Write the structure tokens for this entry.
Amino acid sequence: MVVPALLIAASLSSLPGASAVSLDGCVGATLRNNPDLRAATERVQAATAAIKEAQSAYYPMLAGSTTYARTDNPPQAFMMMLNQRSVSMQSDFNNPSDTDNLALSLGVKYRLYDFGRRGLDNEMARRGSEVSRLVLRGLQNALIHQVARGYYTVLQAGAFVTVQEESVKSLEESLRVAKERVKAGGAVKTDVLNLEVQLAQAREDLIRARNGVKLSLAALNTAIGTNMVESANMPAKAELPGNKPPEAEDLSVIQNRPELLAARRMAQIQQAALRKARRQYLPAINAFGSVDWNSAVSTDFERSYFVGVAAEVDFFDGFRKSAAVSGAGAQQRAAAAEADKAADNLRLDLTSASIQAGEAWDRLDVVRKSIENAEESLRITQQRYQQGAANLPELLTAQTGLTGTRTRNVAAQYDCLTALSNLERARGQLVERYSRQE
């Protein structure tokens, strides 16, 4: 069984002292500080609030109002006096005096039955909340791998610096030997000149390697969301697992990938939206009522009430409902197709990640075997050159070969670690492990 890539952090060979930043520490900081994750978390909160908003349709609506009016309009003045229960048959209804009215009203409305439309709204809101949580988990899964890749890139860049430093030291030693041979008459001055050119090139490569460390640190801190990683608090290297990943993957593991689950929840939301659109043809039954108080301001309030039940249905709306049903059906079919596409892409993603992990392991195995040969070849060539039995091209070839082999070895090591992390991401295991830790 393959040792999970992120668990390799536990076996990192750190610098003296216990201050080295672990990969787990970087991931934990990312889950707390990354702005994309913070935004996704807020979207989860918004989706949760949408559930409560949908559930509010099951509660009665209570509203109040206060109105003050003054008029000499005969019908309005007459109705005001009726509500105040102050109408006198001796009044001149055609020429009323100025009449004022203070009205207080408390109304209630409650939907008795709507053929399940409220239930479908609640179902869509719940599914939407699930989608937002799954999107967050998918983002976490991808970001954990991004941090792991950035972490290994920093270590790789540091190892490249070490390789270039060793190359510079080796060339400096060869240059010293060449100068001594020139003084002794055993070599020509062009050997010294050629070695100085090669040494200058090696020093340029060292400068680029050191800048590579700075760039990789900046990228890692950007992914984390805070500047917590520095060259001084990074471990020296990461150890590799002892077992090669399996040749073939169980493609059924993608069924638990958050991306696929989210796509399927979206298809369910669109299915519910289609059912709701079809039920718009059915009536809604509402109960309503109000209690009213009316007064001429200077007198006591007179109370009245009004209650009833109403059934509402649109017989013609310019074909709005049929268009809504047609559109909802198209959205449902599109969501189902997107879910199928997501499953296909995730299977391809897992297969590709598995192939890349196996390839990286095989490359590493090949490079490992060539390191000792290249080191021994340079050692022998340096001795022969010092004794005058080898010429400068042979020495430079051996030196270049060792530097290239060491560089490929470093690249293969961290490419392998990154590929193993990517394989875990494709299986959906990164977010699962850190969820269990939380």
